[in-house]
Amino acid sequence: MAAYIIKRLLYTIPTLLAISLLVFSILYITPGDPVLLMLASSETATVNPADYEAVRQSLGLDKPFWVRFVDYVSNALKGDLGRSYITNQKVFPTVMERMPATLLLTFSSLAIALIIAIPLGVLAAIKQGSIWDNIATFLATISVSMPGFWFGMILIIFFALKLRWLPSFGMGTMEKGIGDVLRHLILPATALGTSMAAMLTRMTRSSMIEVLSQDYITVARSKGLSEKIVIYGHALKNALIPIITVLGSQFGSLLGGAIVTETIFAWPGVGRLAVDAIGKRDFPMIQGNTLIICTGFILVNLVVDILYGMLDPLISFTGK
Amino acid sequence: MTEQTNTVIVQDQKIPPANFIGEESLPISSMWHDTVRRFKHNRLAVIGLVIMIATIVMCVFAPFFTSYDPVLDMNLKNCLLPTGSPGHLLGTDDYGRDILSRLLYGGRVSLITGLVVSVITMAIGVLIGCISGYFGGWLDNLLMRIVDIFLAFPFLVLAIAIMAALGPSQRNIVITLVIVGWPSFARLTRGQILALKETEYIEAARASGFSHGRIMFYHILPNALAPIIVMATLKIGGTIMSAASLNFLGLGVDSSLPEWGVMLNQARDYMTSAPHLSIYPGLAISLTVLSMNWIGDGLRDALDPRMRK
Questions:
Q1: What is the pLDDT of residues B78-108, one digit of tens each?
Q2: ipTM value > 0.85
Q3: Which among B237, B251, B293 has CB closest to A278?
């Protein structure tokens, strides 16, 4: 087990390096001169050549590509991702400051997705072919096809603007109590979680159907166990295994969706920070943001992989 | 294979069916016949196809359905008209432009983007997947590590970062979505090739001395196509959605041009006064993606009954 975790951790290093290289090159190929971006207040303003050279050297832009890349990675390991071109604040603390808001949003939407998907998927599976199954499948197909950001806008129009039940933007403050934050959380988390819920419903359904046809379920039933124990005690536990693996990879789409959702609901997370940074062409901020989000995603997948191994005794750690 | 089928059909016409016994007396149908027949029996898939054809016809022949120019016909006296206003079936936007005509012309952009991205990602992914799966060895290792790295990124996060670097335009949206889209095709194709490579008929083809290219593209690929076609169909819908997201964030086309994501972005300022601006473009995206998903699911069931869920 320990050997597996160490091996899995070691595999993560080249992936992280490659990701930093990719993110770093994106800045490198970008048209436009970062020095001019920093110095010139407008595109037509003139820049003193001496100032230009000084800033160029202080940013290390006079060095060759690979030297700059190695510098970037070694600094990143120390938690230094450079400074914003616009505000001159350090990138790493700025992003990390916004991280809790994004994590709150993504994990809440994950929770909403699971709360909707698992009962609905189980219901569809045990009543396969019934009206419930058809309704669940139909709803799932429709929600998968809806853009999450559009669903968010519809939620705002109905629940915030027409009915005035819930606030439409911002995160609220803890000073007004946890209830205030929760009220602000409901709409964005629902908007972000719906398409995930739809996908998970379909997965739960097909996974449950497969498990329910296994011999050990027939054995459990013939032992005279109640249907409730068979479904929730025996079948669901095994049906959840493939779902957990999908959760890991789907976490990435939640993070991507969070960027758009945060923009609609003015949620103060890393996604909105990234979109703002793109608007201002603040490249160190874009780089840092992308790098931190991707690293987080890879770590989540690592945890899921290890969890998966613990849940399913059939997966051997030494093999493969 | 097709040649064989053809000759049998010719024979079938010459000799009356009564002369056949056993399996030979059954009607002969090709793989594509079977596919079409099974597809036709899938109600949702047919509905999806009808919606899709209607959407394509309305967008391609947009000038026949609306007399307004989607960009130039502005009239501030008629701005934010509600749905059902005389002359403007779905109302007008903040510049008094007809929403229906913006939807139809915008659909052209979305549909072309979806189709182009899907075809290019499929071509690149299939080629790389074929090479990787067929030759194996260090090349396979290298290519698959690259694929792993691309798939290790959250899709939209990578797309947004690349868009930020390339700058906003519809062409760059296509480039970005191709860059982030090909790895899943490569992985799928490789898996298919690996399974087929070991079959006996490929061994026979190799023993006959056919070139690698011929074996790869004439013998293996046609048999690996079914899941690739399904993925490409679903990719069209997925691309339309991703492109709309990028445009919604303001990373794509010029905001004066009609595009569904751009229209939703503009609608955000009028959610209280004119909610219909937010509703129609989203409905258009959802309906198009939904119909592509139904077609894709239908194709999956029709192309290979074993793949049915």
A1: 776 777 777 777 777 777 788 888 889 989 9
A2: no
A3: B251
